[in-house]
Every structure is written in C-alpha cells, then in structure tokens.
Fold this protein.
Amino acid sequence: MDNIISLSKVTKYYGHHCALKEISFQVKKGSLYGLLGPNGSGKSTLIHLLSGLLPFDSGACRLFDMPIQTNRQCIQKQMGIVPQEYALYEDLKAIENVMLFARLYGLDYKQAKAKVENALKKVNLWDVRNGFPYTFSGGMKKRLNIACAIVHEPKLLIMDEPTASLDPVSRDDLLQQIKDLNRQGCSILYTSHYLEEVELLCDHATILNKGMVLAEGSIPKIKQLLPYTHQISLLIDGSIRNSLEIFTRQLPIAFEPTLSNHHRIVANCNEPAKNLPLLMMQLQKQGMGILDLQISPLSLDQVFLKLIHSHE
C-alpha cells in the first residue's frame, strides 16, 4: 500500500451548492501532508468525508486501500482526529480522558492501560496525568487532544489547525511533537492557516479554493507555479514616485510607500544575483541611497496568496 489516502474526482453537494468539485490527490504512506485553503474552501467538508462522517455524491475515496463507503468502521479504527476545538471532558482527569478514547476505539482494559501511558508520555503529559483539563493551559489541552487521538496507535492522524490560538512557545513544542509522531511512522494530514508551519513540516500539499484543487504536489513543485523564485526588497532614501517607469523596465516592481521621505521597492524575479545590480544601478542614476536590502526566496505563503487571488 503506497497511498494511505486516494481521492479521485470526489464531488459533494449541499443542495444546489457544490462544496467539493472533482477533488483528486493522493497521500503516500508515512507522509506529512498539508491541506490548505481559505475559509469556505472545502477543507472541513473534506475532513468530514475522510472521517466517514459525511457521504459524497460521486467519485472514489479510498483509505488504507479500502473504499470508505463499504469499510467505514474498519477505516475509523485505523485513524485518529485532532479537531480544531478542544474535544475533552473537563470533569475527567487527563488519564481518564485518554482511557475513555482508548475504550471507544475498541481496546480492552489491559491493552488500553499500557497504551494510555504511552500516549501521555509521547505528549509529555504523564507527570500531570491526574490533573483536570480545566486547570491546563491551551497548549496542554491540545497535547491531551493529541494523546486521545493516538492512544490506539493509528496509521493516519488528521490534524485540523492544531496550533490555532497557541502562544509561540506552546506552538513550537507542539510542532516538534508532530514531527516526532511522523518520524515514528504515523502518516499525518495537516491543515493550518499558518503556512510557515506547513512549509516547515510538510513534504507535499494540496491547495483548495471554492471546492476545487488549485495546486497539489511537493512544496517545491507548488512554488514553481509562479514565474519567479525570489523577492528583492529595498528601502530607499528618496522618492521614486516619478521614476517607477525606469525601474519597471528592469524588473517587475511592486511599489509600497513606508515613511514620508522613504519608499520601499519590492521586486519579484528569478535571478536576484543578476537583477539586483541592474536595480541598484538605476537607483544610483537617480541619486538615491539604499537604507535596507533584503533578498529572500518566495515563501509558500506568498505563492498561496497569489494563487488564491488569481482564482477570485
């Protein structure tokens, strides 16, 4: 089994509204796969479909090489879900929450006892196993949610915006634990509005918008969809309002004013080493100095925004 998820032309309607239109992509076993899209793009509908909670109207959906329509219970026992909102019982201890989910997944008490301990240790909550969730921080609650989702050692983990609302320290800790889970062999489907997370964690991704696939493949492959690879940003001592035509002959320039007497040039290009000297030469001819210079490769966030805006 090479693909743990395989979708082919999956379509879902709510009445006359098409929520998903011919969605096709595959998630390989052992992958950490990003599912991206703005609000209303169809991500939640797709997660509900993959979880077996929602039927679809046409197409084919296979998980663990089994069609989900006829193998829903078998598939659900092999997957775990970390929802965006906390899914915990506040009046149960941490260890009791995880035990409850272990039994719901069909483990007997003897099996569950060992696996509960293992799950809590994986997320660094064993020392507070007798604490109640209402006393936990947001990061601790999210880790407890993960423990509940992995207690039965699933082959696939679906994570819906797991770092939403977490502070930077908790977020960094959680990202490291997600990496560790993946290294231990757990395939992960990961959704997030923080695209820097996806770029850090994921090897492949699918971008949805308005229920359709805009892009899918490896992160480098998705970045290649734009005609440029780098961005040059210069903060100029002087005004360039009347000189934009000169600069745009050399590079495609985006103009963004900053301070009253200073302006910033943002140029997208393929060969910064070649194009930067040309840009600096034009600035020197205009008698302008450079206060700040930054060169950076395009981020997944920039590519995502460009693709979404071009699809509006």
The longest helix spans residues 168-183.
